[in-house]
Automatic annotation (TrEMBL):
Annotated S-S bridges: C213-C240
Superkingdom per UniProt: Eukaryota
Pfam families the UniProt entry points to: Sushi
Known function: May be involved in the fusion of the spermatozoa with the oocyte during fertilization.
Quaternary structure, from the entry: Interacts with C3b. Interacts with C4b. Interacts with moesin/MSN.
Annotated membrane topology: Single-pass membrane protein
GO cellular component, one term: cell surface
Lineage: Eukaryota, Metazoa, Chordata, Craniata, Vertebrata
Transmembrane segments: 249-268
Entry's localization field: Membrane
Protein name in UniProt: Membrane cofactor protein
Amino acid sequence: MELKDEPKPYYEVGETIQYGCKKGYVYLLPFSMVATCEPNHTWVPISDDGCVKVKCARLQDPSFGQVHYIDGKISWGSRAQFSCVEGYYLVGTPLLHCMLKGDEAYWDGPSPRCEKIYCLPPPKIKNGTYTFNDIDIFQYREAVIYTCDPNPGPDKFSLIGMSVLFCSGYKTWSSKPPECKVVKCPLPLLPNGRQVAGFARRFSYQSTVTFECEVGFYMQGSDTVVCSDSSIWEPPIPVCLQGIKKMSYFLYFSGSFCLLACFKIYLFDVRFPKSNHFDT
């Protein structure tokens, strides 16, 4: 609030002063806007609650959407956030501000609208195709499945990437399209070791092979490798080194009973006179 008239240096008992609301505020009944000088030369207190901010018009929820007032009110300085239900996307500004213009309050833009999500056909790929390739418009969550064409050569095409794509947003597919190409990893040879699983004549994309070392050798690296889309084994094929791999032993006691725990998987029950830890 603010004084309507210029203040005087001195007021007599019984004199009154008139208050008014500042710009951007309006008077709210039944609050008093007049203060009176009391016999003890004090003013009868008045409340600022008599003036409230000018409000913007309440916004309507868009079809298939809703408006949320972030600040819980619609007076100037407030914000309105718009959103759409699943399967629809927002066209327009998602956030509006209630602004003061002169003595009135207005939203700083038109309300957005919600429109149905659709997708254009997904990208075509070399050496492959996808289902429903005769459709021009895909609805929200509709999906296609990619497959690779038969390869006239000795090695088949491998599908690299996601085989299933679905319409996840306005003109947006769930992921980039896959790729169809020949993936051929070299024979998985392990000197001083042997292959124990994943036998095949040809090793294509995601072929998996498992190894073990011969007696007297230990393995450095992973015992399982996978043929990657770059036609290399990942992780690299391990190495079999001669000797015994260094292992740590830990002794656990409970009374006179001792459990000797070896590295990773070996467990032995033994009895020792005292606790110990040693390496070999």
